[in-house]
Amino acid sequence: MTTSSPAVQTLPTRDVFAALDTSPRGLAPAEVALRRERHGPNELPRARRRGWWRDLAGQFTDLFAVLLLIASAITFLAYGLQEPRDTGTLQLAVAILCVVLLNAAIGFVQEYSAERTAESLQAMVPHTCRVLRGGERQELSARDLVPGDVVVLEAGDAVSADCRLVEAHEVSVNNAALTGESDAVGRTRQPVAAGPVLEARNCVFMGTDVVAGSAKAVVFATGAATEFGRIFRLASAAPRQRTPLQRQVASMARRVAGAALAIGALLFAVRLPAGEPLVDTFVFALGVMVALVPEGLPATLSVSLAIGVRRMARHHALVKKLLAVEALGSTTVVCTDKTGTLTQAEMTVVQVWAGGIRHPVSGVGYAPVGEVTDSQPVRELLREASLCCDARMVPPSDHEGWRVLGDTTEGAILVAAAKAGLDLTAEEASTPRVTEFPFDSTRKLMSTVHRDPHGGHHAYVKGAPQELLARCSAVVWKGERRPLTEELRAAVISANDELAAQGLRVLATASRSLPDGRPTQDEAESDLTLLGLVGMLDPPRPEVRDAVDACRHAGIRIVMVTGDHPLTAEAVARRVGIVRQPAPTVVTGTRLDTLDDDALDALLAGSGELLLCRVSPEHKMRVVTALQRRGEVVAVTGDGANDAPALKHADIGVAMGVSGTDVAREAAVMVLLDDSFASITTAVRLGRSVYQNIRKFLIYLFSHNIAELTPILVATFAGFPLVPITAVQILAIDLGSDVLPALALGAEPPEPDVMDRPPRSRRERLFSTAVMGRILFLGGIQSFGVCAVFFWHIHASGIPYADFTKDDTVYREAITMVQAGIVVSQFFNALAVRTDRQSVFRIGLLSNPWLLVAGCFGIALMAAISYVPFLQTIFNTAPLAPAEWAVLVGLGALLLAAEEARKGWLRHRRPADRREGAQ
Ligand code: ATP
């Protein structure tokens, strides 16, 4: 059999198996191995990577690089024109070129590693599919599919290979990835006329999604042989996109570059009339301009965002876009599902109710060990409910106990049936399923139609009690079928409420006889006879309570959005701490439908406890939109295929990595590897800390720029003929001493009080007044220190200003002290910016060892510049005496002390001030 038989769509279903050399039971393991060898893994060949040299070349085309390259070229030219030639000019030209090269190297390595991170994160969410092999249903990696495999598809699944349908129940697919057509299209299993396979309505294709229904299909093409493989080559990297934060920083950097240009021009204008040679003055002004450009900033920013992404991944939250890291920090509302996110999704049926009598069920988990009390009257209920299930019980293996393959709600029903002594395989064989109407969370029902061994057919229906009860006309009461009177209906509702109030998830079961096996959905799901209710326990996740508390503390509102009964929802919400007040606001989907947008806005306006129950994914979407209208930053969880619109629309769509469908995972920007609500809280905490860290290194970098510029301005206006710090020295500080501490600040662990503040306002700018104030405060102190040491040293020598030359030892010592002064005070500055309000001694001076290592490296480099003769000639520096170092250390410590005093005053003045940015 060839991989893509052109006629596969024209064959009747029974011939499809023969044509693809397989069977309805799937392939045998030995055959799988052979085919795997023949066809290779089910993967698309990667597009050839863009050549690395092109990525590298790209680094030289951004604004800063171009600006610096021009500056370097002019400086080289100036060196050529100088009479006599000054090696200092040549050194400057080379230094600027080095800056460009170094930056390009950092940017290139950083981008390459970001790409690798994205790839490895993708690999962490395995793409799995369900197949029948040797009659067994298995879940395996989509990579392992081979032609001839029989796959089982459900709403929300991504199709992993090209397949011909052999069974189809109300199936529709979204072929947008292949055809660009985003409307769902129906699929059938019936043969169609020959023609392009892409148009065959009985085939589904790799890269598309099942949006409704369920199906079985036989794989006829895998990997590059699929239609998708023919048309597309996998792009190796996601398109680069910038987050608002990156844009803010880039625009700030551009403004600073503009200011640097203006300052350079100003210095040129002031110094020229003083009689200095034109070329020298020009080179000097250019040097100052280059020195003030914040070259390393964009790379440092990307690195710290990437660190955030990696940290989140370590805490089970995979962020697919950098944008989410930023939005996470300002999240104000989390709309969360219940099952699996707040609870463990490990369902155990603990009560069966039928005909007014409760039957407790013993045992916990999926092992069929336990008993249904007085099981005889409820055996029929459990038999029919379990025949209406798609899940499978998987017996224990060496490393795992009993498991459930598929929906855990259904798994619990199967386990209860087994506890009641039912042999499910035998039941399935004697009452085969002929058709089905799959579960969907808007209808909240599922039904299957079975052939009765004694003739005729039956529909078995299970689902949310309210929905099912509305379709029942009779009830089995004390062993007899009775009309569903108002009185009996009330009895069922009250039994349901009682179970729900205990926090149990409740499903009802009903059935009816049918004249034939091909009813419409409406026929199968109307005029039903109710058999009873099944109540299952789903214990809360132990870690959620603390996470909920943390959110509450951090001013984040949690809204529970569930398809479940209000009483179940409330009981669970109480257990995990989402509800504490006696009367939370509980709104059902039916009530939401009656509200117009204004009424909905009013409902969401308060900050009170809110539970949205019995809602459908469409409601979820409406609530997300309404919250965003109010200016909230909304994170929303989802798992089903029809949660995709809400996930896409929210600021942060969060999909479940374990229980979520492929479609939900595709639509979300964050995937939780463990499905737990606690991971959302951790991601928010890390998101907030990323933002804080970025502020820290911005304050750190910009404050020292002030300290580099001020002495130059002061000297110029004081009439001192030389500069207190040369451009080459400034470049040595920017690229030698400052880059590593800035990176280490970007990797600071979250501050202990990061979740004690309300969310950052969306309108708050990165460079807020508070941040600018702090830059001026720290930069001011540093400037004062270095100006003081420079002029003190110059004045102490007693030499008049006009007599100073570049080669003067006193001048060389003085400029060495300025450079060393900045480096040393930056060491203390790095410690000072680590906290906003808290004392840095409280978080521990040693708690970011990398920062200390980076700071010490900067000082060691400075010492080398001061003492190593070769470097002395390059930088025109001189050896400093121990006493001079001591003075510089004293000035640095003064900066830390002043900052500690400011923080102390802030804490004293506004002890209860919990505003973000109160720094
Ligand atoms: P949660 O917030 O608990 O995660 P949900 O929003 O995911 O709930 P759905 O899965 O849409 O809720 O289920 C809604 C209701 O449909 C459930 O309360 C239950 O009564 C019913 N239900 C759930 N799963 C099934 C199923 N497999 N077959 C029939 N009915 C089901």
Automatic annotation (TrEMBL):
Q: Which family does it belong to?
A: Belongs to the cation transport ATPase (P-type) (TC 3.A.3) family. Type IIA subfamily.
* Ligase listed as a keyword: no
The record's listing under Pfam families reads: Cation_ATPase, Cation_ATPase_C, Cation_ATPase_N, E1-E2_ATPase
Name the residues that span the membrane.
Answer: 56-78, 90-109, 252-270, 282-307, 766-794, 814-833, 845-868, 880-898
Name of this protein: Cation-transporting P-type ATPase
Q: State the organism named in the record.
A: Streptomyces pseudovenezuelae
- Recall the taxonomic lineage recorded for the source organism: Bacteria, Bacillati, Actinomycetota, Actinomycetes, Kitasatosporales
InterPro entries in alphabetical order = ATPase_P-typ_cation-transptr_C, ATPase_P-typ_cation-transptr_N, ATPase_P-typ_cyto_dom_N, ATPase_P-typ_P_site, ATPase_P-typ_TM_dom_sf, ATPase_P-typ_transduc_dom_A_sf, ATPase_P-type_domA, Cation_transp_ATPase_P-type
Record's catalysed reaction(s): ATP + H2O = ADP + phosphate + H(+)
* Keyword field contains Nucleus: no
**Keyword entries, A-Z:** ATP-binding, Cell membrane, Membrane, Nucleotide-binding, Translocase, Transmembrane, Transmembrane helix
